[in-house]
Each structure stands twice: as C-alpha cells, then as structure tokens.
Known about the structure:
By secondary structure, this protein is an alpha/beta fold. The chain has seven helices and twelve strands.
Amino acid sequence: MAHCPFDFFTDGKKHNICLVGGGGKTTVMYELAAAWAACGCKVLVLTSTHILQPADGSFAADATAVHNLWQQGRYAVIGTPELSTGKLTAPPQDLYEALHLQADVILCEADGSRHHPCKVPAENEPVLLPDSDIVLAVAGMDALDNSLQQACQRPQLAAELLGCSLDSVIDEQMLAALLLSEQGARKNVGARTYYIVLNKCDLIKAAQQEEMLRLLVGEGIDERRIWLRERGDSKC
C-alpha cells in the first residue's frame, strides 16, 4: 500500500485539517483518521457541511462516547444527525469546544462535491474551521478528458473562472488551475498550509501525472505537499 507522503502525518504535532475539493475527500479523511488512531492518537472527525453518518460504530453522540472510542484505539466521529437524510451536519458547538483541545488530530470535511471529481466553490463554500492549520484539497484524476459539465460541480463557475465553455474538455492545465486558484480549491486558505491529493492516479497515464506535477510545482506548490494517490490505497 502507498504511504502517505505528507510531513504532517509524522511530525508529532497537533493538527486541525480541513478537506476541500472534489471526489475522494471522505475516503482520504477516514484513511488518515484510521492511520492516526492506529498510532495511538486521539482523532476527532467531523464535518462543517454534510457527511453520511458512519455505520461502523465510530459515531459518538456525546463526549463520553468519544472518550470510549479513544480508549479503544479508534477515531471518533461527531456531528448532528439529520434523520431525514441519514447524514451528519456540524456538531453542536459546545461538544466541539469540549473536545477539540483534547484531540491530537481533528479532521473536518469542509466542502461537498456531490461525487464530482472537481469543483469550484460557491460564495458560501468552503466552510473552513477557524482554528484549522491545514487545508487538504482533493481532486479526482478521472476528471481529465471529460467536460466541465460532466465532471465539475458548479461547472458554470468553473467555466467563468477558466474562461471557457461548459463543453470544454478538462485537461491537466485546467485541473491545475482549479487547484491553484484562490477562487477554486485555495479559496480562503489564507495562512493555512496547503496540500493537494491527486486521487485515482491509477486511472491516468504516467505522462498525465508528470504533467500535473510539473504544472503545480511550477506555480510554487512543494512537491512534498502533493500526494499521487491510487484507488487501491487503503492506509497511510
């Protein structure tokens, strides 16, 4: 299995990480959560938007349940159940405030994409936690060679940002632009450290991976902050 390349995973520091962008955020978030929990860290998982309520027993309704999961060496998912949808929304503020100082790592899905591999955020997106120190942007490489209309959430905003039509076929330059733009995945990042996960790299050619890296690194993204992730990766 591929190893998570990011320095924050092994630096021993407390981190509050928000995940934004396109398809694969939830999978990456839970992979990181499980890997940190296996190392003995107290991991708190939540959303500032919506995620499905997990059915594996990792949901914790209160602080006592969170501590029980931590004692078992597991990560804890908190949130407000939405009975009509089976999803979780943001947790009660008092619960978050009671736990966030005790957690070693906090992971928050701060953006939605409705399963599209890439996106441009609307005016009210993403919903970054004020105390987060890292933003992790995810983009699915299966966006390449598909049109904005097919593969991008909010394609009209993407077309306006890129100066093209909805029928334009996404290439490496366009996808890199969405990841680099402060109207795209870097929106509201500010002083937070920015990392990128290029997801489903096994679906594209090696030359396409190399071109994505060239474009991102050429615009100042440290190559050590880019993860070429394949679908088969199941741990960090």
